[in-house]
User: What shape does this take?
Amino acid sequence: MASRIDSARVAALADEPLDWRFKGLPASWWGRTPAQICRQSPNLFDDGAVSPVCVLRLTSLAHNMVTMARWCRRNGVELAPHAKTHMSPQLLARQLGAGAHAVTVATLSQVRVFRAFGVSEVVLANELVDPAGLRWLAGVLDADPAFHLVCWVDSVAGVENMSSALADAGASRPVDVCVEVGLSGGRTGCRGAAAVDEVARAAASSPHLRLVGVAGYEAACGHDVNAEAVTRVRSYLAELRDAVVRLADVFESEEVIVTAGGSTYFDAVADVLTGDWPAGLTVRTVVRSGCYLTHDDGLYRRTSPLRDGLLPAMSVWAQMISRPEPDLALLTMGRRDVSYDQDLPVPYGLSDSHVVKLNDQHAYLRLSPADQGRVAVGDWLEFGISHPCTTFDKWPMIPVLDNDHRVVELVRTFF
Assistant: This one.
């Protein structure tokens, strides 16, 4: 079942007036609503944007959603995009409209954000053992029969903690869980088939849990796409497949979920975890990529299976404020504004210049000889980013621009 989202609640975001809280946006917009602003389709920079400012490109977003939806259909997988990337109900509504079946999140606080907008199908790609969180979840599940959530379990202790907390909360609906298969040297998840089976059977034995599938995360040890790394990923995914077959008589749902797939190896996930399941075993393969939506100019430009088909849709504009040396420019963009955990920002329109360092509020741009005469103090420069997850979280509101830099939407994020 595809997820619902409350379109009226999403639309209501356009009626909340702007003020000083939203960095980068023109002061002339204060006191006006996004709906009022976007009806006039202003040019962001002519209206007085201040540096730095993060933007999204409408045509690239639309292209990426269509491209990913077509790929999922061709490969027989469902998409539950990881919304920790953007934490934006408006962007999620677009993704659901383009064919996504559910939303993936990483924490209970993120669940709460999307529940506030009526999202009905949620994948919590993590363990949940917090009694307070489980009490809240039990209340939401009991209050809304149309709300469905699935999370992970990776230990008998976790199963026991969840069961005890749900019993204390008086939960009437069981919580759906997938047993998580871990990767040696990786993050969470059961290590080895024996542990997987033990945890799965413990979950199935609990009256407060319902075992519905197998989950994993194949990029827990990195994003290399060389032959050795891909072979290791495929071997790990085969462990997930084996667990599904081995536990066929333990699952408590008519359809079994098998889910993996970040933004680097979802092609391997589709290849290993679809097709040729044993007779009588109905399996839904769910990928959880989040970064396909904006793609990027760094990590996923190198590693995405659709790197030749997706377009970078996010950039940060910054102003040059200093040329202290002929080959050095300082810009009003730093670690508070742009991602730096995977790669440094990439300047557009320059021949061979590179950002070499970021401070909290400054970028150091080393200028090539060919570029030294092309830029001056006061110029605006546009930068591509690497790893959108850690750029989105720095911007509470992001303008969406058409090809003429006119504002067509203002996107709220809730981190």
